[in-house]
Amino acid sequence: MSQKTLRVVNPAVEKASRKDLLALQERRLIAQVQRAYQRVPYYRNRLPPQAGNISSLAEFQDIIPFQSKADFCPAPMTR
Fold first, then answer.
1. Does residue 26 contact residue 57 with C-beta atoms inside 8 Å?
2. How far is it, in rounded angstroms, from Cα 39 to Cα 29?
3. pLDDT at 27
4. Residue-wise over 37-64: b if at least 16 C-beta within 10 A, else e?
5. Three-state secondary structure call for residue 44
6. Which of 1, 61, 67, 71 is least crowded, fewest Cβ atoms below 10 Å from its Cβ?
7. From CA 26, how far away is CA 54, in angstroms rounded?
């Protein structure tokens, strides 16, 4: 049986410590929320104005409301 060698695509990320990965994920989440708030009218209308200026995960948890499936689906039609 032959062994396959796994190719490392991004060593800085793939070999990062847990602390570094959490920091990277936080930066990416904040950037994604800011980008969505700035560029997508739906989120600009849906999120509070502070969402465009989030700078930490703690702020994210305080500002961004919990979303459920019902928030994204229209109300069922009644007869």
1. yes
2. 15
3. 92
4. beeeeeeeebbeeebbebeeeeeeeebb
5. helix
6. 1
7. 11
